Amino acid sequence: MNLLAWLESRDLIYQKTNENELSEKLEAKEICSYLGVDLTASSMHIGHLLPLRIMNILSEHGCKCIFLFGRGTTMIGDPSMRTKERPILSEYEIQNNLNSIKPQVDKLIPNIIYEDNATWLLGTNLIEFLREAGSKFSVNQMIGLETFKRRIDNNDTLSFLEFSYPILQSYDFYQLNKKHGCNLQIGGSDQWGNIINGVHFIKKMKSEETYGITLPLLLRGGKKMGKSSAGGVVWLDENKTTVFDFWQFWRNLPDLDVKSYMLKFTNIDAIEIDNMINGNINEAKKTLANHMTKWVHGEEKMKSANAKSISIFENNENSELDEIVLSEENVKLTKILVSAGFATSISDAKRKINSSSIALNGQSCTDQEYIIYKRDIETELIIGYGKKKKIKVK
């Protein structure tokens, strides 16, 4: 099985251009790929892991791989699948985000080449850019892109700032092609229109064939997961999402998603995956959690998270639980649920209480106005959310 066919067998490809040529180039190791990330946050999240997985595979296969920091395009904001403009960040914030994200990439992809599109975008002469690049794009085709068409159909504001984004992304591809011979762009399924624009732009500028790959959506329970878990965004930065919570995210995947995630994120043979799931699906989930945590955070932290899970959920030991120390004499349970990450808001906390998902020392609590009094906690109070989340209140 060639590499492209293997990637497809692992459910890692959603769309691709020029399949036969792309497959031949991959086998000959004549592919130089790039993945671009705008610097809108100080950390990547689990939504970035699928394209990073592809880049990791290509790097190990012997292909040149480029990680493009979108310092220039972050100043505009990618409008893909958004109904409102992104907030404009300062150059200082953008640079800080770059400095935080680079160490994460260093751990995930070997032999990666870094580029920053501010290098060419910030020094570009406007008139020269419009003459060189602007003339190669059809407004008629651009307003047909799903993102723009949806905005227009809904009478939502679409600024020229955002409208220029696909041109700038295409220009990035062109610059990387000139400098590195880059001939493959990788992105999420929402990037298909932008990627196709880049392929066509390079064809018009250099009469050269380039390629694009998009990846499938990550699903949770058969539904689009997006960037968030039940408790919010799952970040790669352990200061934003603890290593234990990261491990728990993968351990607590719905049963129907386990095979898909193991195919995508591990090299375990598909038949062996089926045997693991049919034999003991909870052990399969632990295998996945260990694999993902080791990749993102390293072996020692993976082992620590695994041991902590065994201590809490298998041995019923509370000593390893994270703690919330009450700083007030009385606090509403809903507020604690939000602080613990068990709920995203007070209203969400009330819904969880009402659905009998919250337990206090093992006893279900359905009182949405329940108040925890510090004087009533003799030693500690264990708050549980479902079967796999607990926290200690003191």
UniProtKB/TrEMBL annotation:
<dbReference type="InterPro" id="IPR014729">
    <property type="entry name" value="Rossmann-like_a/b/a_fold"/>
</dbReference>
<dbReference type="InterPro" id="IPR002942">
    <property type="entry name" value="S4_RNA-bd"/>
</dbReference>
<comment type="similarity">
    <text>Belongs to the class-I aminoacyl-tRNA synthetase family.</text>
</comment>
<keyword id="KW-0436">Ligase</keyword>
<dbReference type="Pfam" id="PF00579">
    <property type="entry name" value="tRNA-synt_1b"/>
</dbReference>
<dbReference type="GO" id="GO:0005829">
    <property type="term" value="C:cytosol"/>
</dbReference>
<dbReference type="GO" id="GO:0003723">
    <property type="term" value="F:RNA binding"/>
</dbReference>
<protein>
    <recommendedName>
        <fullName>Tyrosine--tRNA ligase</fullName>
        <ecNumber>6.1.1.1</ecNumber>
    </recommendedName>
</protein>
<feature type="domain" description="RNA-binding S4">
    <location>
        <begin position="331"/>
        <end position="392"/>
    </location>
</feature>
<dbReference type="InterPro" id="IPR024088">
    <property type="entry name" value="Tyr-tRNA-ligase_bac-type"/>
</dbReference>
<dbReference type="GO" id="GO:0004831">
    <property type="term" value="F:tyrosine-tRNA ligase activity"/>
</dbReference>
<keyword id="KW-0648">Protein biosynthesis</keyword>
<dbReference type="Pfam" id="PF22421">
    <property type="entry name" value="SYY_C-terminal"/>
</dbReference>
<keyword id="KW-0694">RNA-binding</keyword>
<dbReference type="InterPro" id="IPR036986">
    <property type="entry name" value="S4_RNA-bd_sf"/>
</dbReference>
<dbReference type="InterPro" id="IPR054608">
    <property type="entry name" value="SYY-like_C"/>
</dbReference>
<keyword id="KW-0030">Aminoacyl-tRNA synthetase</keyword>
<dbReference type="InterPro" id="IPR002307">
    <property type="entry name" value="Tyr-tRNA-ligase"/>
</dbReference>
<dbReference type="GO" id="GO:0005524">
    <property type="term" value="F:ATP binding"/>
</dbReference>
<dbReference type="InterPro" id="IPR002305">
    <property type="entry name" value="aa-tRNA-synth_Ic"/>
</dbReference>
<keyword id="KW-0547">Nucleotide-binding</keyword>
<dbReference type="GO" id="GO:0006437">
    <property type="term" value="P:tyrosyl-tRNA aminoacylation"/>
</dbReference>
<keyword id="KW-0067">ATP-binding</keyword>
